[in-house]
Write a structure and sequence with these properties.
242 residues, mainly alpha, Helix Hairpins, 4-stranded mixed beta sheet, disordered C terminus
């Protein structure tokens, strides 16, 4: 194998590790945001449960005020009934008092129903509050783990990048430029082996002359289709013979 191919394979291995780390780091931000978003959803559920309790309490308070208003009306009608000397007016006030009492009974029933709803809603608040607290513990723990993993990845990345330039500098400039260009275009598979007579990158069938050129180790050979740099090792001989 040509020394330049060996050096390129070493550089490619380094770049693959760097690209893998960069990809992992790129997913950390969204992963952290997703965790925080799930916590926000739990917080919103708790707020909604509390809001429901507030609305029910407001409705119950309104019913209480309505009951008090009807009781005041009953007192008013009772006084007027006591003061009147006309039988028709007496009966009319008696009817109004009975009507108010009926309304009060209805309002009392509604209050009981609301109190049951409030009790259920308060249990929902307690459950949502516990769910938020439990979720926060899990999210905080996972975010801490993510932060630690991010730190380790950045440390590993810095170590890999520290002497990447040194690995690249041993390669002739024009070849290095070609490699860097292909790295941007093709990703981490710049140098590919020949498997069963085809390019390991685009899987195009290669001519015998291309394969022989790789075996000859006299110059850098590229795939005529994808332009990737080809290499050939002895352990690939049987694959081609098949």
């Amino acid at each position: 194998m040509l020394p330049v191919i060996e050096n390129l394979l070493i550089l490619q291995d380094r770049d693959r590790k760097i690209l893998t780390l960069l990809d992992e780091l790129a997913h950390i931000g969204p992963e952290r945001d997703s965790l925080r978003s799930s916590l926000s959803s739990n917080k919103a559920a708790l707020d909604a449960a509390k809001q429901k309790v507030m609305h029910l309490e407001s409705d119950r308070k309104k019913l209480e005020l309505d009951v008090e208003a009807k009781k005041l009306q009953i007192e008013k009608y009772s006084i007027q009934q006591f003061q009147t000397k006309k039988n028709e007016e007496f009966k009319a006030f008696e009817h109004e008092i009975a009507t108010c009492k009926g309304i009060i009974l209805t309002l009392d029933d509604q209050q009981i129903e609301l109190m049951e709803q409030i009790e259920t809603a308060q249990k929902a608040v307690a459950a949502a509050n516990k769910n938020l607290a439990d979720s926060k513990k899990v999210v905080d723990s996972r975010i801490t783990d993510i932060g630690a993993r991010e730190g380790n990845l950045n440390k590993e990345l810095a170590e890999l990048q520290s002497n990447r330039d040194e690995l690249a500098e041993v390669i002739e400039e024009s070849t290095r430029s070609k490699y860097d260009r292909l790295l941007k275009q093709k990703g981490q598979n710049v140098l590919v082996g020949i498997q069963h007579g085809v390019c390991g990158g685009c899987h195009m069938q290669l001519s015998r002359s291309i394969i022989l050129g790789c075996q000859g180790d006299q110059e850098i050979v590229t795939c005529p289709n994808c332009n990737r740099i080809l290499y050939y090792t002895r352990d690939m001989d049987l694959a081609v013979a098949d």
